[in-house]
Predict the structure.
Amino acid sequence: MGTFSLVGRCAKTCALGVCVSTAVPAVGSVVPHAKARVGAIATQAHTSAVYGIEGLRLLEMGFSPKAALETLLTKDPDRELRQVAIIDAVGEKVAFTGSETVEWKGHTIRKDCVAAGNMLSSANVLEIMIEAFETSQGWLPERLMRVLEAGEAAGGDKRGKVSAALLVVGDEKLPKTRPFLDLRVDIHNEPVEELRRVFEAYKRWIKVEAGYR
């Protein structure tokens, strides 16, 4: 699965999130994984949801992101086909890009975020995504949405665009009855643009119905 994604953390609120887009349907059902006060994980390329599900379990058990990733890679005979990015609740980070993933491929680790991608138009995609995250402030979902828009504008997945997703947990501005934000566009000619439309509608609902400030 050629994909560009970013896992990020808000240092102020400790909210965690994943934003992702790709050229195949339903990316939100497999790539992003997150749990409040635990961590956020993106598992892509030849995607294995085990890295998300088991990775969060290991983080919750007290494993560092590095130890959790090493444990999962050791058990995986197809690890060189994987790409994984992890950030935990205190901001520790790790990433892996297998040697058999498709060019352009790579990852970038910075303070409070990790960007990763494969089958990208160029390395510039990740550079622009990181810049968008680091130069933005405020609400984590908004920052992650801007990251996706920046990645798409920089070229994104070289095969095209089909789906996008935004997952955020542990954010104090979300309604207590809906403690996470999980928005997805599964099949669309402009998935990131459509995700922005859905996101703006959700923001309006929060303000009117749930006391968002």
In short: The first strand starts at residue 3 and ends at 9. The radius of gyration is 16 Å.
